[in-house]
Design brief:
Elements (H helix, E strand, L loop, with lengths): L4 H15 L9 E2 L2 E2 L27 H21 L10 E11 L4 E9 L8 E9 L6 E8 L3 H4 L9 E3 L5 E3 L12 H5 L3 E6 L34 H16 L5 E11 L1 H12 L5 E5 L17 H4 L27 H7 L5 E6 L7 H17 L23 E6 L9 H12 L1
Parallel strand pairs: 6-9, 6-10, 10-11, 11-12, 12-13
Antiparallel strand pairs: 1-2, 3-4, 4-5, 5-9, 7-8
Helix pairs in contact: 5-6, 8-9
Pfam family, one: GCE_fung
GO molecular function: carboxylic ester hydrolase activity
Keywords: Hydrolase, Serine esterase, Signal
Amino acid sequence: MKRPLTVLILMAFSLAALAQQPAANRPTLVAGIPVNYQEDSVGSYELPDLLTGADGQKVTNAKVWTRKRRPELLKLVEEIQFGKMPPRPKAMRFHAVDPGTSVFNGKAIRKQVVVYFTSDTADHKMNLVIYLPSAVKKPVPLLMNISFSAYNQIIDDPGLRVGTIWSREGKKVRADKPTPFGKLNVEQFLEAGMGFATVYYGDIEPDFKEGIQYGIRKTYLKPNQTGPAANEWGAISAWAWGLSRAMDYFETDKQIDATRIALQGASRLGKAVLWAGIHDTRFKVVVASISGEGGAALSRRNFGETIGHITDPSRYLYQFAANYHTYSDKVNSLPIDGHVLVALMAPRPLLLQTGSTDYWSDPKGEFLSAVAAAPVYKLFGKTAPETTVMPPAEDTSLLMNHLGYFMHEGGHAVLPTDWPRIIAYLKKYL
């Protein structure tokens, strides 16, 4: 049975919420696969060596990493985990339906832009809203967010166009109902001297197994092809591809400094922004929130969600390249892991934001991933975790590193109290 986007999102967050409960109340079986929450049952593992090339050459400096080792690892991630994505479409164009309106009592300029991916403007387009601080008279840096909701649902601004979202029945409907994810205070970014933009991820590709029938991936299928090849893009790559199309627009807007664009997303969208930042080096900073399995967390740690859980065909295999599922029962032979994704961002700033009780997403696995990737950041002389001792919740000692880590007290969410810390990080590196 088709399970549309809104249902799957709520299911995923509900499962994460269950995983935050006391051990006796957490799910012990998901998709017929046992779930472990005990550190003494994680098992032993050895991570792929970041600093040894496929030919055995040791990586001793940033030049060798950039020219040789990084391309090797990037190809593995692309072929195995997320899948190949196409380049910028030739027919793409932008239409500013709101080229610039003063909002928030004159504090900001709002722009609403439709990005058309194909020559047919009826489908395959995404709605982008941008807020820029009015007080700044030169091109500004900007945080680009990818959201589970249409932008009119998460921002208090009566001038916003009402978008569409995917309904429980798998149909596009007006986004005129409240969202379970709450409102976002956009003015906090403007007060920090930066812009803010957001897009609804369902505009790019729906978030359910049959979504390829409606999303951008459909337009790239070859004749008689019903789905992507085993090494071609899943939904996460499609969302990342859409973020690169937003960057294409930013490069045309003289009020935006396209060399200072940060990305932020949470949960599966934390995976998407991490992959977008890795694949498209035009993005300067990435904030990957609660990205978990398939994101920054170590897959070899048998804790919480595993490759088997996330790539089960009844669950989220459509989000990845089909090749990823072949490692669901042989994770120790996987030539990559979460620390590879983290290292591939080097030397650009990356902040991993997690939650102390988000056991399903394994915040410790994300911390250990950062520890394992730290030597790559140090090749570039950048700051990264110097300790193997995981900091407690609300500890900010690792927050401001180039490779930063911060864990709030709480679960699978980006809390209102997280944003001032994220903004401090962005102000430092943008």
